[in-house]
Give the backbone structure.
Amino acid sequence: MLGFGCAESRSPSNSSGSDANANAGNSGISAGGSGASSGSASTAGAAQSTGGSGSSGMPGASGAMSSGAGGTMASGGAASAGAKNGGSAGASGMHAGGTAGAAGSSAGSGSTSLGSTPPMGWNSWNAYGCNGLNEAVVKSMADAFIATGMKDAGYEYVNLDDCWMDGRDASGKLKWNASKFPSGIPALAEYIHGKGLKIGIYETPNTKTCAALYGGYTAGVGSVGHETLDAQTFASWGIDYLKYDKCQGQLSAFAVMRDALKATGRPIFYSINPGDQGPFCTPTNCSLNLPLTANMWRIGFDISAKWSEVIRLIDANKDQYAGAGPGHWNDPDMLEVGNGLNDVEGRAHFSMWAIMAAPLITGNDLTKMSGATKATLTNAEVIAVDQDSLGKQGRVVATPGTNLEVWSKEMSGSNTRAVALFNRGTASASITVQWSQIGLPAGAASVRDLWAAKDLGAATGSYTATSVPSHSVVLLKIVSSP
Ligand code: GAL
């Protein structure tokens, strides 16, 4: 984990199905309606005045990753015909109502809407931290998007996190760190756009970035008071995505940058982290109307590559489903697949981000992925769960045993659900989903195991996966038979 000193998030107390942001008919970020978001930046006038110095040191992570132990996925489990239909009073009707209010996207935009499905990409922080970020690394990731099939799988944003900058010039304009980025950010944007990808960057609504506040990166200056100029600078450089990280700034400053981005006319996806000290700011517990402020917001403190951390963020996110929808998503933080979790845990982590309609922002070294990591990150059927056009965030519909959960996500298409049978515990277990828990009619439904890429046939009323391994997920697509 590479975060700095922010307090732990707190689970929200409101777990009802109602939408606390009932007026959230759309996201606050207009796409501006002009220009393709992948257009390359003009480099004219983009040169900066000074060479800049190398960054001051702060501990960054090495890019090392361990692929960990293998494991097998439970794909078995007989359909238990008809036996358990209707057996779970109280948990039915999960998908009926209860999610009103958060639909719609990109108010006032012309033709383009941003984030109609959760963003997919890569970010430098988890693997490279502050010291490891540079132009060569970022270019190699863009290359790897193509070489590994990540781009074909849907990943598009190549994102620079903290520590790309070197203060401001005499006119107040942000400078990139010329030791790290000798060709400059506009040239890097052009390189990334040339591959049909998009580029993201990092700033904060304070005078310092988090790396400056907590890690000694003194060149990390924030955007507060400079929002208009910084947004224009980003637009002129060809930036497509901004991660705006609170870092002890004021919550009210998030709307200032939203408006500054909008005023540039360039579609720039707006990802915010509105939490640091004290309770985290979530849709059910925040003075900001998050869906009207940003395309995506962090709901908890920084992830790290440990199973307990994956669990912590799932638990922080599980009651936030009503705030998510096209154009505005909960963000349980970036992926740690390939950074130290074993392969079974990596698949479970990815499965749960998919069923939560979370952003799929990878955080590993894409140039050194194991076969298992690559297979996890590029699994088309699992990605399709995350990217489903209905934009529902899945939720827990049953807890059939200690450390056992059944999650369901309403999918586009009639009577279609993605279902995660989630074993959080340390021993393997059988897990059953009942149609009544997921709002499907009592009759027959087809069941497909997405990781096994296997149709399991029709089941009536319920389905049981047997021997679901510890720390794993059986991910199913269940469709009622006509
Ligand atoms: C943290 C943030 C991390 C990373 C870091 C950079 O506040 O949660 O994701 O951006 O700052 O300094």
